[in-house]
Design goal:
By secondary structure, the protein is α/β, with parallel strands linked by helices. The chain has one domain: Vaccinia Virus protein VP39 (Rossmann fold, 3-Layer(aba) Sandwich), CATH 3.40.50.150. About 45% of the residues lie in helices and about 25% in strands. The protein has eight helices and eight strands. Strands 1, 2, 3, 4, 5, 6, 7 and 8 form an eight-stranded mixed sheet that branches. β2, α4 and β3 form a beta-alpha-beta unit. α5 packs across α8. It is globular and about 45 Å long. Bound molecules: S-adenosylmethionine. S-adenosylmethionine binds next to α1, α3 and β2. S-adenosylmethionine (SAM) binds next to α1, α3 and β2.
């Protein structure tokens, strides 16, 4: 049995500090700091006239804060299950002079988003909590509808591979990363959490679903072992 939404909320309520470091990002994922930088820099080049950003599963606000370094006047909508995460994200954004347009606490499956409003939507390390493909379709359609024409969606997350043997190889690479980072016990701890909490999808499915809901262009920004970053343009 996978963790429930309530269990996931209370877990993240107690993990705010771990998701509030802009220099390192979320270190239990491979290439975290690199992808933070890469997404923020690519947004600056692809959405130079952006006004509104929405960060789904914002955690401590790292992605929004990194984007704000290039766009200090952007207004942000921050969304999370955890009120503790939202409070920290809001505090960090406002302390750098940023504006929080909306703060939404809830499950992205249930929340209503503004239509045709955002120039940028980010979902980093959150959609692996979706439990089936119908939920993916519903959430990606919601994200598509929330964007203005030409707006961009940025995805970064744990993924799985279509081919089980490839998945095994990439799991081993991820395990090696975790062991080198904090030792075998930590590696086991992370994999135990993945087992009970996460239901990652394949890159191939996500790309085809993004195209299905209407995105005109979809690209892979980065991929390393079990993590991938994807960008989609409306
Ligand atoms: C692994 S953290 C990532 C935080 C941030 N995006 C980052 O990359 O630093 C996942 C966040 O998503 C939130 N979350 C999990 N499931 C969610 C859901 N169904 N709807 C909204 N937020 C969710 C958690 O509370 C947590 O803050």
């Amino acid at each position: 049995m996978k963790m429930t939404v309530n269990e996931i909320r209370s877990r993240f309520d107690n993990e705010v500090d771990r998701f509030s470091n802009l220099e390192t990002g979320q270190t239990s994922t491979v290439d975290s700091a690199l992808v933070l930088e890469m997404i923020a820099n690519t947004i600056a080049k692809t959405n130079p006239n952006a006004n509104y950003i929405c960060d789904i599963g914002c955690g401590g606000g790292n992605f929004t804060l990194k984007v704000l370094e290039n766009f200090p006047t952007l207004e942000s909508t921050i969304i999370d299950l955890s009120m503790n995460m939202l409070n920290r994200a809001k505090e960090r954004i406002e302390s750098t002079g940023g504006t929080v347009e909306q703060l939404l606490q809830g499950d992205i499956r249930e929340l209503k988003l503004c239509k045709q409003h955002y120039d940028i939507v980010i979902a980093a390390a959150v959609l692996h909590h979706l439990r089936n493909r119908a939920e993916w379709n519903k959430v990606l359609k919601k994200i598509y509808d929330s964007l203005v024409e030409g707006g961009t969606f940025w995805y970064w997350d744990l993924i799985k591979h279509e081919i089980p043997k490839v998945d095994d190889i990439q799991n081993d690479r991820y395990k090696e990363y975790l062991i080198q980072f904090k030792g075998e016990k930590y590696q086991q701890h992370v994999f135990d959490y993945i087992k009970k909490e996460d239901t990652p999808e394949t890159v191939t499915f996500i790309i085809s679903e993004l195209q299905k809901v209407g995105f005109k262009k979809v690209d892979i920004l980065h991929k390393n072992s079990k993590f991938a970053a994807i960008v989609a343009v409306k």
